[in-house]
Design brief:
The protein has about 375 residues and is an alpha+beta fold. It has 10 helices and 17 strands. A hairpin with a 2-residue loop joins strand 13 and strand 14. GO terms for molecular function: chorismate synthase activity; FMN binding.
């Protein structure tokens, strides 16, 4: 069974993740993970923190000679901004606890609820961990899972469908390769150049108005074999697990699989995917409204997950709040902030989807080495075609 844990604060010395259960023999390099970390930091509309950090991963255990060993993998991403915060964030009694104390909760953040829940007088104890900075660790972990999926013939592609009021037009017959090329060329990870141009203008207007923008991103997984997940328990359903993982990304407020919310507006004849059969393909569908998942299980079609990200709540046009200590009203403080972080969230979305699919693959096929699981997946794919 695969599992992971992340630790670290936004202005602490480092972010750390430990991955347990990864098979032995999986090829992995720092460069590949760093490439995904760089994608997370990119995108038009990002804030000042991205100019400070240039995320680089270090392997502290579990990888030798460019391959996993089967033992727990420790990943570390150093925070360069730690040098400016070492006195305030120090773990020992030498910490300057009375400097830069935060008592003013920001609307839309974890600040107030977290301070009440954990009885913190300094909200910094909440915001340091609730920060989306933590997602860098999840991208590193998800890239390990992505490497495993690629070895097993599964490909992950993410792109931005919408920012603010601008929605991209994506051709239904657009091939995987072309979709990846167009997305890679875009500073907003949007495969529609005309839409991207309009998105940039909308972001500029939001910046001028001291505001922020959210949007929608989509993750597609190609080559997912039939039978991942299960119908027998709610917590084993693949769509349930994917939705939970994507909803766990900071600022995500809605998740849908396939047609998702659109299925509520049309009759069943326009929702369900008819089933066909041919000797060379086996069972297949000509449409994919279900997003590759039926009854909590993958059905062999591409898995499609879509998420709605709310606008970043830290605004340069401050919102009203109330001081935790004095109970006096105030305008929320302005710190470094993104105007739009939807492309970054998309990269995180790719990572968490990859992780959940890798977990489902390991649960179904098992094995302790890459060779073992590859053989089992190959045999299963052949069996499915013969059903």
């Amino acid at each position: 069974m695969l599992r992971f844990l992340t630790a670290g604060e936004s202005h602490g010395p480092a972010l750390t993740a430990i991955v347990e259960g990864m098979i032995a023999g999986l090829p992995i390099t720092r460069e590949y993970i760093n490439e995904q970390l760089a994608r997370r930091q990119g995108g038009y509309g990002r804030g000042g923190r991205m100019k400070i950090e240039k995320d680089q991963v270090r392997f502290l255990s579990g990888v030798r000679g460019g391959r996993t060993t089967g033992s727990p993998i420790t990943l570390q991403i150093v925070n360069k901004d730690w040098d400016n915060w070492s006195d305030i964030m120090a773990p020992g009694p030498e910490a300057h606890l009375h400097e830069r104390v935060v008592t003013r909760p920001r609307p839309g953040h974890a600040d107030l609820s977290g301070a009440i829940k954990y009885r913190h007088e300094d909200i910094r104890n909440v915001l340091e961990r609730s920060s989306a900075r933590e997602t860098a660790a999840r991208v590193a972990v998800g890239t390990l899972a992505r490497c495993l999926l690629e070895e097993l013939g599964v490909e992950i592609v993410g792109f931005v469908r919408r920012i603010g009021s601008v929605e991209a037009v994506i051709e239904e017959d657009l091939g995987t390769s072309e979709l990846q090329k167009r997305t890679a060329r875009s500073q907003l990870l949007c495969p529609d150049p005309q839409a991207e141009e309009a998105m940039v203008k909308e972001i500029d207007r939001a910046r001028e108005n001291g505001d922020s923008l959210g949007g929608i991103f989509e993750i597609r997984a190609y080559g997912v074999p039939v039978g991942l997940g299960s119908h027998v328990h709610w917590d084993r359903k693949l769509d349930s697990r994917l939705a939970g993982a994507v909803m766990g990304i900071q600022a995500i407020k809605g998740v849908e699989i396939g047609m998702g919310f659109g299925t509520a507006a049309v009759p069943g004849s326009q929702v369900h995917d008819e089933i066909y059969y041919s000797p060379d393909r086996g069972f297949y569908r000509n449409t994919n409204r279900a997003g590759g998942i039926e009854g909590g299980m993958s059905n062999g079609e591409p898995v499609v997950v879509r998420a709605a990200m709310k606008p970043i709540p830290t605004l340069y046009k401050p919102l009203l709040s109330v001081d935790l200590k004095t109970r006096e009203p105030f305008e929320a403080s302005v710190e470094r902030s993104d105007v739009c972080a939807v492309p970054a969230a998309c990269v995180v979305g790719e990572a968490v989807v990859a992780w959940e699919l890798a977990c489902a693959m390991m649960e179904k096929f098992g094995g302790d080495s890459l060779e073992e699981i590859k053989e089992r997946v190959s045999q299963w794919r052949q069996l499915v075609r013969q059903v």
